[in-house]
Amino acid sequence: MATGWTGAALRARRQRRRDFYALETLWTTVTQADPGVVLHSPPPGAAWDFHTLRRAHEIRDGQLALRPWTSQTVVDAARRLTDDHGLEAPERDALAAAAGIKGALEALRAGRPPSQPCERLPGIDVPPQAERRHLVAVARRLDSPLVDRILAEARK
Fold it and tell me: Which of 29, 42, 62, 126 could potentially form a cystine with 134 if both were Cys, beta carbons 3.0 to 4.6 Å apart?
């Protein structure tokens, strides 16, 4: 019986570790906008749950720091293009969030805020129990060709 619980605990730990590493690219991307959102070094030996939760909070803070640079045009283009592909709602939100973040960083680097800032960041209203899954999905789509296509469509 103890072996069954140990196996489940190890699978959960491996999943948390995979999520933590999957969030690395997204975390690095959004913290470029405001390095102040990064907390101090975690305590030694802290659990993967702690690291992953903290990384998710830092990503959300970075995403909110990018809000003035996030274009409603990019988010609308993402919604149009993802509707055309017949994707499920979580996938559409992840692609829209990835495009919004990538577009916001481009605007920030160019020093040109959008003419129409985003009213509501895509995926910002994801319930807490689904937040890590959503952020991992955003991280995996950040370099997607569809995100690049969304940004090109928004520039037209």
Answer: 126
